[in-house]
Amino acid sequence: YCVIYPAAHLFYIILFILLSVIQVKLWRLCDPELEQPSSPELTLHPGQGRLELVHFHPTSSGLLAVGAAKSPLIWDTSRQDAPLAGSYRWRRELHMLHTFVCTRRLIALKSPPLSLSSLKVRAARLLSVCSKRSRPPSELLIHSPSLLLSQPHPGSESLPCGQLNTRGCHGSQSGIGRDVLRSDACATADRQLHCARQLSGPPQGVLCVFACSLSIHSVVLQNSGQEFHEDLYPDTVGSTPAMSAEEWWQGGNKQVIASLPATSFNKILTYNVLQDPGHGCSTSSSPLSTPSSSADPSRSPSSTSGLSSGFLPSPSPSQSAKAIQSLLGPTSKFRHIQGAVMHRDTHITNIRGLNLTTPGECDGFCVNRQRMAVPLAISGGQIAVFERSQPGKLPDTALPTIQNSVNVVDFSWDPFDTHRLAVAGDDAKIRVWQVPEGGLKETLTEPELILQGHTEKIYSIKFHPLASGLLVSSSYDLTVRLWNLESGGEVKILTGHQDQVFGMAWSPDGKLLATVSKDGKVRIYDPRKSTAPVQEGPGPDGPRGARILWVCEGKYLLVSGFDSRSERQLCLYSADSLSSGAIASTQVDVSPSTLIPFYDPDTSVVILTGKGDTRVLIYEIVPEEPYFMDCSCFNSPEPHKGLAFLPKTECNVRDVEIAVGLMLTKATVEPVAFRVPRVKKEFFQDDVYTDTAEWWKPALTASAWLSGSNGQHKKISLKPKDMTPVSEAPKEAPVRKYMPSSFYLEEKTDEQKKEELLSAMVAKLGNMDDPLPQESFEGVDEDEWVSDK
Questions:
Q1: pLDDT single digits (tens) 271-306
Q2: Is residue 75 scored above 50 in pLDDT?
Q3: What residues pair up with 403 in beta bridges, in sequence order?
Q4: DSSP classification of residue 600
Q5: Does residue 557 register a pLDDT over 50?
Q6: What integer is the mean pLDDT of 509-513?
Q7: Is 200 helix (H, G, I), strand (E, B) or coil?
């Protein structure tokens, strides 16, 4: 059981009770960055049986109330010989004690907390005399969340019922304990009346005191924007003790002096308290550490010109972002990303005979800027090629295809040649096809090149990201081979795998190759230096499949796979220390298909989905905790077979699209755009669109790379000439959207209400002095009247 000394401002004092030895130990903690003491500063020996509860006095320094087995004791921590008071014994155990702020009474609850029978208030200096006895209300339970709403507040007598907001709390986590923070820890900009900490345990029952601390707030809802509510926040007390324990024992009843008005406190603390709630404690630089010297009292809103109406200056956007981050933890600026299927006019429909049984190592289909390749369930390993420039409904007749004569295992477009398609078959051969300009006009039966070398069926193939004409393949013969398409031959054989290779990925600089295998290992190769892996580490536990790619400028490896319980998970590895294992992981869901990732290096956003899924997951990957930041998901109306992405130049920056993909369903190909909601879309969002690499242009040839040369892609800006960057947009003056709280809370007299009602009625009826419309009409002359005679 722990208690923090309320009057400590330069350090904390934590009290810890060891139930086994029946002692009270006091520890003095230094600055969190310094080494903490290894032994207690003070040890008390009450000698009254098992100890249950402790509580520091709210106004006196070093005065401690201890709940022993049968009686409450009061100790002066500067004296260890004996307690100041505590001879009265009760028949039943104490379960809660609390010292009132009035400093004269000690309140204690006895009996088990589930059947509270009576409440006794005793004069603390004469514990044998009971001043008052009454049945305890449930609101006095300190460790109940209802305390946040039922605890009396100086400014809440006439307010509506409050609302409890547990920010960052998960409904499945049960609270182990809670404690209410000081009033000056509440964020007045969010209209918080109470603030507390809740301690929860992790799933396996391991108690992590700091990592699992969650913030709880009691908020009063009012339509008053960023203004300060003087009616809700009266002056609050400081943290300097009013007197010593000896002075209190001699009869003193001094109160803690308010070091600063609550308005000034909250002006400072609104965006500084509760730093990093996800880690359980505030930083040492928080103003809570030295409240008496945090600000100048002369600068309080009550004494500052222009703030007499109770308004605080509107926080800047950066301050608002920091406030949200401090309360909710780190969040991604892409968290509200939206996926949307484009107009039907861009779809390709009526696809017949689609192959739905491609191997797990295959992405299902592949695309480039001009065309897409789709496998068909027709004998002979046929692949259909559709032009992106020709959307619409396909004819019911047979289409020209690419015939491989064997079952297709994997296929991939050359990133530097939109006409070259490499296809791996189950006959251990790789066929390279050349699609004519304008698409297929007739069926192709003769490939441009055939690569032979593997002795078993091939798993997957990948083109090099920088060198043209360089291809890598993995096979059931447990080898990974490099091919030079310029010479048409094999150039390297990489070994070291003990089981099936699930996935391969080239590093962004094209120097290294990473693989993930069924043998539970993640490996990194430097193919030009060695055929053996240069690094090796533990991979996913599940044997069902995995994918791998490089993230965060090639410093980390992201692996999507399965754990030992066949749940899909994402693991992040440091590329410099694979042997130490994953530095972070997150559980996704339960599904039989492997998550296929797409990574955008410009935004560090990874988009994942599996074949047969209807949900597309989106995360932002960061090189520090929490590593995985959740973003909104995209749900497709029906299961899709694959999702392949186009170059960044295909994104419409005017709609703030950060990725455009093609989704393959049972009979259609539908473009999907992923957009980031922004208010000022007329400006170029230069914080989203950094200069992007021209990865569709080669940096060097295969021969140059094999000889040891390196290269890198050139970068281009996506900003249109007629758009202004949002960073250079003119600043708008803040506009007050709401009336002050006094406007809503002020009670109007009957005469004022009557006058407002009459004014509203007159406004609806209009001005009575205005002429009627018919008065402006012209009459009929006498000679125009027709006589009946």
A1: 333 333 333 333 333 333 333 333 343 333 333 333
A2: yes
A3: 382
A4: E
A5: yes
A6: 94
A7: strand
- Residues 256, 279: Cα–Cα separation, whole Å: 31
Q: Is residue 89 scored above 70 in pLDDT?
A: no
- Return the closest-CA partner of residue 222 out of 267, 282, 163: 163
Do residues 259 and 296 make contact, with C-beta atoms less than 8 angstroms apart?
Answer: no
Count of CB atoms situated within 10 Å of the CB of 73: 23
Token duo for residue 86: 């505590």
3-state secondary structure of 472: strand
What per-residue confidence (pLDDT) applies to 178? 64
Q: Write down the pLDDT at residue 616.
A: 95
3-state secondary structure string across 484-548: ECCCCEEEEEECCCCCCEEEEEECCCCCCEEEEECCCEEEEECCCCCCCCCEEEECCCCCCCCEE
Rounded Cα distance, 32 and 583, in Å: 25
Round to whole Å and give the CA distance between 2 and 580.
36
Q: For 355-411, what is each residue's pLDDT tens digit?
A: 888 888 899 899 999 999 999 988 888 999 999 999 999 999 889 999 998 999 999
Per residue in 116-142, is it b (16+ CB within 10 Å) or e — as a string? beebbbbebeebeeeeeeeebeeebbb
- Specify which residues 481 forms β-bridges with: 473, 493
- At a CB cut-off of 8 Å and minimum separation 6, what does 66 contact? 24, 44, 46, 51, 53, 54, 72, 73, 74, 75, 83, 86
Give the position of tokens 């308290």: 273
pTM of the model: 0.57
Nearest residue to 139 via CA among 119, 168, 163:
119
CA atoms within 13 A on the CB side of 9: 15
Which residues share a beta bridge with 537? 522
Write the single-letter amino acid at 303.
S
Give which of 54, 316, 315 is closest to 189, Cα–Cα: 315
